[in-house]
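To: structure desk
From: M.T.
Subject: fold request, one chain
Message: Could you run this one when you get a chance? Sequence is below, nothing fancy, just the single chain.
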Amino acid sequence: MIEQIKAWLIFRDDKRVRLIDKHRIIEKWGEPANFIGKPHLDLKESGFIPRKVAQEWENADLSFDTHIDKAFSLTDIKFISLLDEKYPLQLKSVYCPPLFLFYRGDLDISSNAVAIIGTRKISNYGVRVVNSFVKEFVEHDLSIVSGLSFGVDAEAHRCTLNSEGKTIAILPGALDKVYPDSNRDLADKIAETGLLLSEYPPGQKVERWHFPERNRIISGISKAVIMVEGGEKSGALITARFALEQDRLLFAVPGDITRDNSKAPNKLIAQGAIPALSPQSVLEELGIEIHPEMSQNIPNAMENNPLYALIAQSAEPLDMDTLIEVTNQNFGELAANLLELEMDGLIRRIAGGRYTAIL
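Reply: Done. Structure tokens follow.
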């Protein structure tokens, strides 16, 4: 096993061969241990790679690696390659997916996942949005993907665990060197019921270029990506770009235009991202049937919230113009109040920008 992993690492890390050609090579000749560390005349004569590279691969040392062996013998870290049937199908569908992954936990939960991303400096508004969305998604059997960083990432993971859901953390470094170190306990809890994934072998330190590499996996393994909060130059925008390149649904939560944390999601909406106005609106875009809500909050809302009572008692869905006229609220105040009701699972926005009660 250790020799196979070393062969994969040598193969992946050789920058003289294009990634697309590496995919063609393993498609034709199988895993790298078949042609690294041993003679392979067909590959050498194939023209896929320079003869010098083929010769170096042939002479490569695949002998025992103490660090990797120790990590695999003393921890629950496992290895999976692109050639394995259990490799995550959603990720496998992207252009030139990672050749292999190291993981802890349950690979099966990656089949139905949504990514929640954003700033490391999450606001109270962001916390509320994340908790509202995560709880609803868990109720609908979606796994929650994020990057184990501070802020939105950690909040998404913790809320999923607290909701007894499944969460997937994609790390920018080795699984035995959790980054950031302060989230090590969180990572261990995720591994118990969820999944930790990394492209990097045990002992690998975090490099700055690992973050965009990590981000392409976050989007690639997910059916949709939701930007919650982020500044104008937020690193989460890289994940958003990958989502579009990988043909994933991209959502963004609208925010206050005067706040820095709203600049990234508002910009994405202006560029065509789907506004994530509520958890239900995301589920509808994903084609997921929404479970009937039996909320204990409804009687209180009918009594104490005139806006909800107006929408709930209306025979037809109501649009913004009608609501502004009837309530005498300005657009900004009304939009904020509608979003609050959506996040509480009491109303939803439907086609034509109209609002209707869930029940």
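Reply (cont.): The chain has 17 helices and twelve strands. Let me know if you need anything else for the meeting.
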